[in-house]
Design goal:
Shape: globular
Helix content: 55-70%
Number of strands: 10
Distance between the termini: 52 Å
Largest sheet: 6 strands, antiparallel
Oligomer: single chain
Number of domains: 2
Low-confidence stretches: 624-636
Mean pLDDT: 90
Structural class: alpha+beta
Length: 636
């Protein structure tokens, strides 16, 4: 039966290749008469990939363990919601999900009003690049990433989903990441096409909503991954500069840089090549993240085993870079208008862009340092989190400072609302003093936290002073993103710098103290479910002699998995959150407990939600794309 979805993917590949070849022929002849055929071919590809995807979902729903992919990522005891989410839990299924999204977005683009506005030649070149990408993904699916391999005889039960993935964050983290990766395909291919056909002034407007939405999903995916790490990996942190974490951060940095250069490009008709390069680089960095996960080139907790996808992915990225260089080099020369000076919104935007790009380069080189260092040593080592913190945190704090200052500058030159800007500076200095009195003495934490708070005050003041901002939905969205980011900066600066941690071996009735909290071990219990055995320790939490609650950190032994997994317990607080991990226990019920405190950490997640949800307010209506961008540029 599973020859049907495999054959569907094979036919989809052949159709994509035929449509791409037709577009190349049309471009060579300078014609666009076959566009309707190409568009219908794309709709057919979507139908075929949808059929294959439904087959895989049905196999997970029925627990059909004759399919190798299903037996490797599911079992009879797995709850249905996790069984269905296992669709994207492994290499082959996640690649199918990515390919299906690309096909879906291609069809959505066909029916977009913006698509209809482009000339025939631009559409032809767009489809050459788009169908080339789609064909590559389909090629992987019928080869090294085939999700429809059958095993015989079929096992009676499967291995089960990795216990670390049985978490709410993993239900959404991978789909959001692939929504972003697929979403960047449209603007990247459109940018190259428009540069070739000299329609470069329209592609940024046409792809704005695609780029912004993809950026929001990429932000949400990264932040969900950080939350998952905080709640599931039991180490008490939310970012460890792991290679796979870094890989998904890099396209976010380049995409964020592009969103800012795009504002300058639209308003000043400048930075043409820069904008094309940045959006295509973001697209390529999405494949780079996939390469890092699937190639085995570096070791990571989150990486898959290497199965042969690394070389094709590397060749695809190299080919994409070469095509981009050729398009930009041989494209028609354009004259960019000069930019304003540093003391302007344009100037600070460019400074911010350079910081984002330097950060992306540092993270990229640091991630691949074990590979790079093989050029001069036979014992390469990876860079530790200390390196990234030492190099990247000062740059991130500088971004926070620009976040507070940028909206108060005019687009071309000078400071807005000079008197009130002076009030903001006074508030900022007062915040520095207040934080210092409260014990925030680490310089980067002090500057970052005060900049985050100053940004919040500044945005509120600007909306109170400027009625035009309150009337524009896109301004609410752009400033809302900055507001969410400022709240995140506050949470990250304090929680990262002032986390406390302590370990203790406790018998029943004994206590340990961390910060202002005392945890008393009151006992241990265990129970069984069809999927796992749970061992839970009970900790009575008190502060200043008053009992304020109980935490029950657990160790879980899942069926089919030999090693136990920790399930942390937290006491939610908008101030200092208490975090407990059961590291181990003896037959006499003596437990080893790790406690940690995380001041203001939940403001990181609150800011994340604000950033992602409010960002959708910046999605533009088509009729509004021609409006003056000066006000919006100041808020983005």
């Amino acid at each position: 039966m599973y020859w049907i979805p495999y054959a569907s993917l094979l036919v989809a590949l052949l159709i994509s290749l035929a449509a791409a070849a037709a577009c190349v022929h049309q471009a060579w002849q300078g014609r666009s008469r076959r566009l309707s055929w190409v568009e219908n071919a794309q709709i057919l590809v979507l139908a075929l990939t949808t059929l294959s995807s439904l087959f895989l979902l049905w196999a997970f729903y029925n627990r059909d363990f004759s399919l190798l992919y299903v037996s490797s990522h599911s079992d009879l005891a797995l709850p249905l919601v996790y069984a269905l989410s296992a669709f994207w839990a492994g290499q082959a299924g996640s690649m199918l999900f990515w390919g299906w999204l690309v096909a879906l977005f291609g069809v959505i683009w066909i029916f977009s009003p913006w698509y209809q506005r482009f000339g025939g030649q631009t559409k032809v070149f767009f489809w050459i690049f788009f169908l080339g990408t789609q064909s590559f993904l389909l090629y992987l699916l019928i080869g090294v990433q085939n999700p429809f391999l059958v095993i015989s005889p079929a096992p009676l039960d499967g291995q089960g989903l990795n216990p670390l993935l049985r978490h709410a964050g993993m239900l959404l983290h991978p789909p959001f990441m692939f929504l972003a990766y697929a979403g960047f395909t449209i603007p990247a291919c459109l940018a190259l096409a428009c540069w070739i056909t000299n329609e470069e002034q329209s592609w940024i407007k046409a792809s704005h909503n695609w780029t912004l939405t993809a950026w929001i999903f990429l932000s949400a995916g990264n932040l969900l991954g950080a939350w998952w790490a905080y709640m599931e990996l039991a180490w008490g942190g939310w970012w460890a500069w792991d290679p796979v974490e870094n890989a998904s951060l890099i396209p976010w940095l380049t995409a964020t840089a592009f969103l800012h250069t795009a504002l300058v490009g639209q308003a000043r008709q400048a930075l043409g090549k820069t904008n094309v390069l940045l959006i295509v680089l973001t697209f390529i960095m999405c494949f780079q993240a996939t390469y890092l996960v699937r190639s085995g080139v570096v070791e990571s907790l989150h990486a898959f085993a290497a199965v042969g996808a690394g070389t094709p992915l590397m060749l695809f990225m190299m080919f994409s870079l070469m095509i981009t260089a050729l398009v930009l080099f041989f494209g028609q020369a354009r004259e960019d208008r000069p930019l304003s000076g540093l003391v302007s919104q344009q100037g600070l935007l460019i400074v911010a862009v350079w910081i984002f790009l330097v950060l992306s380069l540092v993270v990229l080189l640091g991630t691949y340092w074990p590979v790079i260092s093989q050029l001069w040593t036979q014992a390469p080592v990876g860079l530790t989190a200390e390196f990234y913190n030492r190099v990247c945190l000062p740059l991130a704090v500088l971004i926070a400072v620009l976040l507070a200052l940028g909206p108060w500058l005019h687009w071309k030159h000078g400071v807005k609302h000079g008197k009130w800007f002076g009030v903001l500076v006074g508030i900022w200095l007062g915040l520095v003093v207040l934080l210092w009195v409260q014990g925030v003495r680490i310089p980067l934490a002090l500057i970052g936290a005060s900049a985050g708070l100053a940004t919040v005050f500044g945005i509120v003041m600007l909306f109170a002073l400027d009625p035009s901002l309150r009337r524009r939905r896109t301004a609410w969205g752009a400033y809302g993103v900055h507001l969410g980011l400022a709240v995140m900066v506050l949470g990250a600066a304090i929680s990262g710098a002032y986390k406390q941690e302590a370990d203790a071996v406790l018998s029943q009735g004994e206590s340990m103290t961390i910060g202002e909290f005392t945890a008393t071990y009151t006992g241990m219990e265990s129970w069984n479910t069809p999927a796992k055995t749970v061992f839970a320790s009970r900790l009575e939490i008190s502060r200043d002699g008053q009992v304020i609650g109980e935490l029950t950190p657990q160790r879980r032994l899942y069926r089919g998995w030999d090693q136990p997994f920790a399930e942390v317990a937290t006491r939610f607080s908008l101030g200092t959150e208490l975090y407990a991990t059961l590291l181990g226990f003896t037959e006499d019920k003596v437990v080893t407990i790790r406690m940690s405190t995380h001041p203001l950490v939940n403001w990181l997640w609150i800011g994340s939600i604000m950033l992602c949800l409010l960002g959708f307010l910046a999605v533009r209506r088509i009729r509004g794309t021609e409006r003056n961008l000066e006000g919006l540029s100041g808020s983005s």
